[in-house]
Amino acid sequence: MTATQTQHKVVSGDEWRKARLAHLAAEKEFTRQRDELSRQRRELPWERVEKNYVFEGPYGPETLADLFAGRNQLIIYHFMLGPNWEEGCKSCSFLADHFDATRIHLAHRDVTFAVISQAPMPRIAEFQKRMGWRFHWVSAFATTFQRDYGVHFTKEELAGEVNYNYGKTRFGAEEAPGLSVFYKDEAGDIFHTYSAYARGLDSLVGTYQFLDLVPKGRDEDGLAFSMSWVRHHDKYGDDYAVDPTAGYEKPREMVECCKHEELA
User: Fold this and answer.
1) pLDDT at 200 over 90
2) What is the pTM of this model?
3) CA dist., res. 175 & res. 147, Å (int)
4) Which CATH architecture has domain 47-204?
5) Nearest in space to 191 (alpha carbons), one of 200, 202, 181
6) Angle subtended at Cα 76 by Cα 72 and Cα 78, rounded to the nearest 5 degrees
């Protein structure tokens, strides 16, 4: 056995097929359980959205109703890009690399997809251009939207535990990741139907679904922060290396002179 080979059990073709069929039965049961969980999710009660949120879009003001773009269902990803951050969160960027390809398919199933951040629109536009993304992205800088949906905290709140993912927890940044779903009826009334945070966002990451199929899996065991290996897609290079002791690192904030220019 060469140095590159693993000490994994190796069997005959017949034994391999027997083991695979046993695991297939477990996979099918998991699929049935997932389908049932999705059905239960669709039966959750809704809450009416009472506030009239007005966001800053790339071409001017946009209401929450505008974000539906004529459809009845809306998925919003809460992207971690703070008002003074130099760039977006690399973990959110990892997710965002998967968004553009699905938008055309969602649109033909009566679903609009949009992204919202706390940063002002010029900061969003600059980072979006750098990353080459095309999805619709608006700013909640002048609204309480991100705070109302549990993904924006004050510096004072961060000194203790914050309310995130339906519980109290310590959090290291004023922005947090999340996803929220809304429905707009024929009368124009809007309802909040679902929100998910933290590991509830796993299913959005196509790369993880591929990694789960290979022998090493996600290969995140032993890392202080599971996604510490992730880079912005324009920052991977020949010198790429994973620091297993690295925790979550909030993007640096802009220097003071640039803050005033950006928010003016």
Assistant:
1) yes
2) 0.92
3) 9
4) 3-Layer(aba) Sandwich (3.40)
5) 181
6) 165
